[in-house]
From TrEMBL, chain A:
Phylogenetic lineage: Eukaryota, Metazoa, Chordata, Craniata, Vertebrata
GO CC terms of this entry: aminoacyl-tRNA synthetase multienzyme complex; cytosol; nucleus
Keywords associated with the record: Cytoplasm, Nucleus, Protein biosynthesis
The protein, known as: Aminoacyl tRNA synthetase complex interacting multifunctional protein 2
Pfam families per the UniProt record, alphabetical: Thioredoxin_16 (PF18569)
UniProt-annotated location(s): Cytoplasm, Cytosol; Nucleus
Organism: Nothobranchius furzeri
Renumbered residue ranges of the record's region Disordered: 1-21
SUPFAM superfamilies linked to this entry: GST C-terminal domain-like
Entry keyword annotation includes Nucleus: yes
Primary gene name: AIMP2
TrEMBL record, chain B:
Name listed for the protein in its UniProt record: Aspartate--tRNA ligase, cytoplasmic
Taxonomic path: Eukaryota, Metazoa, Chordata, Craniata, Vertebrata
Start and end residues of each stretch annotated as Disordered: 23-54
Organism of derivation: Nothobranchius furzeri (Turquoise killifish)
Sequence similarity: Belongs to the class-II aminoacyl-tRNA synthetase family. Type 2 subfamily.
UniProt superkingdom: Eukaryota
SUPFAM superfamilies recorded: Class II aaRS and biotin synthetases (SSF55681), Nucleic acid-binding proteins (SSF50249)
Length: 297, 535
């Protein structure tokens, strides 16, 4: 099988690079085989899903796969796993666990949407904990990452861990690799990090900056701003959405996630202008925003 | 002078007896007798002096040394507890029984600090229409740690009394009687024993080292810190029982004298047992499992556990209290982990909510960060732990056991990332676990076993047990265990045994680590280690 051959050559290369005969190579191979098998299953599942979805959700799949268009679909899935290696650092043979500390007084809606997107792309082990610094957390927050995965007893079967801890923190923070990274503060920064695991930022600097500026607008002016500022943002959103289906152009991006969640949170949804209303509908049609609405009820 | 003649007679008898003895001893004895005689004379003098003075003492009925309480009478007197002395009781006349914590006489006044367990209150005897000069003198001369009965009026104070637990009131004593007199010289001073480490050095004051404390444990246990520690420990036991009982567990009692060691004979105490020898149980493991095979489903037991390890560390005792759990599960041993971790979380929550005073008291002497935990408890797999350690630069093999320093380092890494002092490490390598541990179905190098950690130190070791007699025999042979010795154990699984798992916690360690103390002897009331068998 070509898949196996590829796997073999890579792991032996790896051993050569290290300049040592690693006895763990065979174990590594076995693990890789296992991962490949899971990926294959995942791919089948995603393909099945893609067929049923007719909304702009397909756009996302297209953006992801378009950058690898020269390769066969099988190697796209493979690239998905090496993607995590290049993005998050070398695979140490253990779950890569992203820890997010959030205050239950301010649930991070954008991160929940991104979690839903990540779960579609990777095998994500999602867990919710309550830290001893908060005494009680409403049940809908405790189950905000959806029902427990049936395989959650075996952590090694997952590619990515998403651990949400409800904790008494002044500012949302993310901890990933405690050795190489300082804790990341702020919902916007964490959202940018998570979105990069899903799709590369637009390679055009202008487009990338546009996405960033929308994210800033969402968190500073919509979520924290006065009613005047909010109205101004809504007008700006309306005119931008008159020009293109999504905020940063033809493709769905982090800008849409951030702005959608902040509009929802600032309760400006009902009074929003027509283009914004239409855009919010298309966001909701993607299916990843359902948890946010439940939390706000 | 009846007393004196008795002494002389004594001396005479003694001299007769000692004629055969050496001259030196005789001389010594004589000297001592003389000394005793002189002392008696002095006392008699003091007594007569007192009597002379008593004649013009209008308050002599209001103080003194009470006759020994032999249950002569049943007084209808209500003794108020020190902790209940609050401004609401102001201007009431009350009785209370307490110890003399400190006393300080100053001319016509004498200040006392009366202590009852971890609470204390300031009291005052002042010369006036209620107390005489002699009474104040008497109060000032009561030895520290004596127990007294006091009748006093509760008075509000203008300025808070910072040194006492009851800061808003003081007592104006009207009567004071000594119920039990303490010897004048104490082996250690209570104030020295509660002084935080390091503070004494700055002020040039004494601190008491651990051995002195333990040698005089009865006095050391009176300190506010010890009082708080052992009240909290009792709370741990109670919360453990309450939580498990609510979950439908049954408490069992198991024998501690056993015929065979469960994990080889390396670290067990041997005791002679009539014509043969027996061992002291190193865990109630076998009995818990037999109860499972006898359809008790969910059992726990609280009792002594013995380890004959000759290790003199801050966390090893040779006898400690084990809190043991064993339960059947349906399909996956994580049901057991969840049950145990939930119990632990209930204990932590109970302590956090109901024992805040005790926690604060201990942290005054031994400052530490409050204990943090997650609900549900964080579970990591062994390979993840190893990966975290490797990332931190530790070189270790996949199947190596965690060394104590690595355990602590991993605890710090987990704390940094997840901010929890309590977590579970799952899927240990099979090679480092006892023979009755169930192997992992997916990877025979690993096992269905787990450790739980508090502040980076192991408090519980548990696993799914092998309930199949064939596999159990096979594992025992692999571990080179004499099958004859564990025959009855293996046989108990032959007649239908449900899948089960469990674990055992050390009570002293849990208390030590919850409070962030540094030595397990601090949380053991009468510690036993390779070098200590008394008190």
């Amino acid at each position: 099988m070509p898949m196996y051959q590829q796997g073999d050559s890579r792991s032996s290369e790896h051993a050569l690079q290290n300049g040592e005969v690693d006895p763990a190579v065979s174990a590594l191979e076995a693990r890789q085989d296992e991962i490949l098998r899971k990926l294959y299953e995942l791919k089948a599942a995603v393909e099945g899903l893609a067929k049923t979805v007719t909304t702009p959700d397909a756009d996302l799949d297209v953006t992801v796969s378009s950058s690898f268009s020269s390769q066969s679909s099988r190697s796209i899935m493979l690239e998905g796993s090496t993607d995590l290696d290049t993005l998050l650092g070398e695979d140490l043979g253990a779950l890569r666990d992203i820890v997010i500390n959030a205050n239950p007084a301010r649930p991070p809606l954008t991160l929940l949407v991104l979690h839903s997107l990540l779960s579609q792309r990777y095998r994500v082990l999602s867990t919710v904990h309550v830290h001893s610094s908060v005494s009680s957390v409403p049940p809908q927050l405790q189950s905000c990452l959806g029902p427990r995965h049936p395989d959650s007893y075996a952590r090694h079967l997952f590619q990515l861990g998403f651990t949400l801890i409800w904790k008494d923190v002044p500012k949302l923070e993310m901890k990933f690799s405690v050795h190489n990274m300082c804790p990341i503060e702020g919902e916007a920064s964490v959202a940018r990090f998570l979105f990069k695991l899903l799709a590369p930022y637009p390679s055009d600097p202008a487009a990338a900056t546009l996405v960033d500026s929308w994210v800033d607008t969402a968190f500073f002016q919509l979520a924290e701003g006065s009613s005047k500022e909010r109205a101004a943002v809504l007008r700006a959103l309306n005119s931008a959405l008159g020009r293109s289906p999504w905020l940063s152009g033809p493709e769905f991006s982090l800008a849409d996630v951030a702005c959608y969640c902040c509009v929802l949170q600032s309760c400006a949804a009902s009074s929003a202008p027509a283009n914004v209303q239409r855009w919010m509908k298309s966001c909701e049609n993607l299916g990843h925003f359902s948890s946010t609405k439940q939390l706000l009820q | 002078m009846k007393f004196r003649s008795f002494k002389l007679q004594n001396l005479l008898i003694a001299t007769e007896e000692q004629q055969a003895q050496s001259k030196k001893a005789l001389k010594k004895q004589q000297k001592e007798a003389e000394k005793a005689a002189r002392k008696a004379e002095k006392q008699a003098m003091a007594a007569s002096e007192q009597q002379g003075a008593d004649e013009d003492d209008f308050a002599k009925e209001r103080y003194g040394v009470s006759a020994m309480v032999q249950s002569q009478q049943k007084l209808d007197r209500v003794l108020v507890r020190v902790q209940d002395l609050s401004p609401e009781k102001a201007d009431q006349l009350i009785w209370l029984r307490a110890r003399i914590h400190t006393s300080r006489a100053k001319g016509k006044q004498c200040f006392l600090v009366l202590r009852q367990q971890q609470f204390n209150v300031q009291a005052l005897v002042a010369v006036g229409d209620r107390a005489s000069k002699q009474m104040v003198k008497f109060a000032a001369n009561i030895t520290k740690e004596s127990i007294v009965d006091v009748e006093a009026v509760v008075r509000k104070v203008e300025q808070k009394i910072e040194s006492c637990s009851q800061q808003d009131v003081e007592l104006h004593i009207e009567r004071i009687f000594v119920i039990s007199q303490a010897e004048a010289r104490l082996p250690l001073q209570l104030e020295d024993a509660v002084r935080p480490d390091g503070e004494g050095e700055e002020e040039g004051r004494a601190t008491v080292n651990q051995d002195t404390r333990l040698d005089n444990r009865v006095i050391d246990l009176r300190t506010t810190t010890s009082q708080a520690i052992f009240r909290l420990q009792s709370g741990v036991c109670q919360l453990f029982r309450d939580t498990l009982t609510k979950k439908g567990f049954v408490e069992i009692q198991t024998p501690k004298i056993i015929s065979a060691a469960s994990e080889g004979g390396a670290n067990v105490f041997t005791v002679s047992y009539f014509k043969t020898s027996a061992y002291l149980a190193q865990s109630p493991q076998l009995y818990k499992q037999m109860c499972i095979c006898a359809d008790f489903d969910k059992v726990f037991c609280v009792g002594p556990v013995f380890r004959a390890e000759d290790s003199n560390t801050h966390r090893h005792l040779t006898e400690f209290v084990g809190l043991d759990i064993e339960m059947t599960f349906n399909y996956h041993y994580h049901e057991v982990i969840e049950s145990i971790t939930d119990t632990m979380v209930q204990i932590f929550k109970g302590l956090r909510d109901n024992f805040q005073t005790e926690i604060q008291t201990v942290s005054k002497q031994f400052p530490s960060e409050p204990f943090k935990f997650l609900e549900p408890t964080l579970r990591l797999e062994y390979t993840e732990g190893v990966a975290m350690l490797r990332e931190a630069g530790v070189e270790m093999g996949d199947e190596d056991d965690l060394s104590t320093p690595n355990e602590k380092l991993l605890g710090r890494l987990v704390k940094e990332k997840y901010d929890t002092d309590f977590y579970v490490l799952d899927k240990y390598p099979l090679a480092v676990r006892p023979f009755y541990t169930m192997p992992d179905p997916n990877n025979p190098k690993y096992s269905n076993s787990y450790d739980m950690f508090m502040r980076g130190e192991e408090i519980l070791s548990g696993a799914q047990r092998v309930h199949d007699p064939e596999l159990l025999t096979q594992r025992a042979v692999h571990h080179q265990i004499d099958l004859e010795k564990i025959k009855s154990y293996i046989d108990s699984f032959r007649f239908g045994a449900p899948p089960h798992g469990g674990g055992g916690i050390g009570l002293e360690r849990v208390c030590m680590l919850y409070l962030g103390l540094h030595n397990v002897r601090q949380t053991s009331m009468f510690p036993r280690d390779p070098k200590r068998l008394t008190p």
